[in-house]
Specification:
- The complex is a heterodimer of chains A (about 100) and B (about 210).
- The N and C termini of chain A lie far apart (about 70 Å).
- Chain A is flat and about 70 Å long.
- In chain A, helix 1 packs antiparallel against helix 2.
- Chain A has five helices and no strands.
- By secondary structure, chain A is an all-alpha fold.
- By secondary structure, chain B is an all-alpha fold.
- In chain B, about 40% of the residues are buried.
- The chains are: A mainly alpha (about 100), B mainly alpha (about 210).
Chain lengths: ~100, ~210
């Protein structure tokens, strides 16, 4: 391993860590403001961004073999299916009054 | 067997590494569904009783959770550095980084334990003789989910700390598969971090 490559990797990891802490500060700050439904959207959006950073950089999914990436995506794909099917009642049922 | 069919030693080691990492990814996919089922129950409760969820969430220790999030994010960074060092053959440095990662994990558990103790004294926890709410009460159900989800996560942190210390031991003893094992343990640790990244806002920041 060359010295340049070594410092480039370390720099990338440090930048990712700093970004993660900035995102944490962002979620703490967003919590101080009442944004209604946007609070939940911001919280989940920030969590997804953190998850992607950890997954792609720290867990190296960005450079992983296709099979490893497929397994990682499959886990979340089954989870998405679980959420959609589990929310069927909420997504489809409405009272007659509410529908009119 | 002709020589051409016998994998060379570096090839065999690379294949063993890929297999070990794939095994951990498959295990983590099952973990996504384990925690995912709990998140699905959470989503249903929060949809059905948003006010009760917000009221219960406002009693949690948000500042402690922010510190704990910073601890786990930092620990993920340190274990990523440990993987990098182990691959480069810098075993002593990697072992040191693994030790620091484990210490952050222990600090996380200590803070979480402090939260549980305070919640026990406030009679919030679902324990026989302590739980005063009616079964099915939405506020109490949120507290139950908080305990189940953070408890399952804390168990994972504890297992992760054990795995980190084991990996540190393999490196120190100069185990031939030490670097590969560090990579596998690091994947598990990052996953534990990711679960917390979602638990933190969904449990602690509901009333906002």
């Amino acid at each position: 391993m060359t010295g340049t490559n070594d410092s480039a990797v370390r720099c990338r990891l440090r930048a990712t860590w700093a970004t993660l802490l900035v995102l944490l500060a962002a979620s703490a700050l967003v919590a101080l403001v009442d944004l209604g439904a946007f609070n939940l959207a911001a919280n989940v959006g920030i969590a997804v961004a953190k998850c992607l950073l950890v997954g792609l950089v720290f867990m190296e999914l960005a450079d992983a073999p296709a099979l490893h990436r497929a397994v990682a995506v499959a886990g979340f794909a089954w989870l998405a299916l679980l959420f959609v099917l589990g929310a069927m009642d909420v997504l489809t049922r409405t009272l007659p009054e509410a529908a009119s | 067997m002709p020589d051409a069919l016998v994998p060379s030693r570096p090839d065999a080691q690379a294949a063993a590494r890929q297999a070990a990492l794939l095994g951990m990814w498959v295990f983590l996919a099952t973990e996504v569904l384990f925690f995912g089922a709990l998140f699905a129950v959470y989503a249903e409760l929060r949809h059905a009783a948003p006010q009760a969820a917000a009221a219960a969430s406002s009693h949690l220790y948000r500042e402690v959770a922010i510190v704990n999030t910073a601890l786990l994010l930092t620990s993920s960074y340190l274990v990523a550095l440990a993987v990098h060092a182990a691959r480069a053959g810098a075993d002593a440095r990697a072992a040191r980084l693994l030790g620091r990662t484990a210490m952050l994990g222990i600090a996380f558990l200590a803070l979480k334990g402090g939260e549980y103790a305070a919640e026990y004294h406030a009679a919030e926890l679902p324990l026989p003789g302590l739980a005063v709410a009616a079964p099915g009460d939405a506020y109490a159900r949120f507290v139950d989910l908080y305990i189940v989800m953070t408890g399952a996560h804390a168990l994972h942190v504890a297992v992760g700390v054990g795995a980190l210390l084991a990996a540190r031991g393999w490196l120190r003893r100069g185990h031939s598969a030490g670097a590969r094992r560090v990579e596998v343990v690091a994947l598990y640790w990052h996953f534990v971090d990711i679960v917390w990244v979602f638990l933190f806002p969904l449990l602690y920041l509901v009333d906002r």
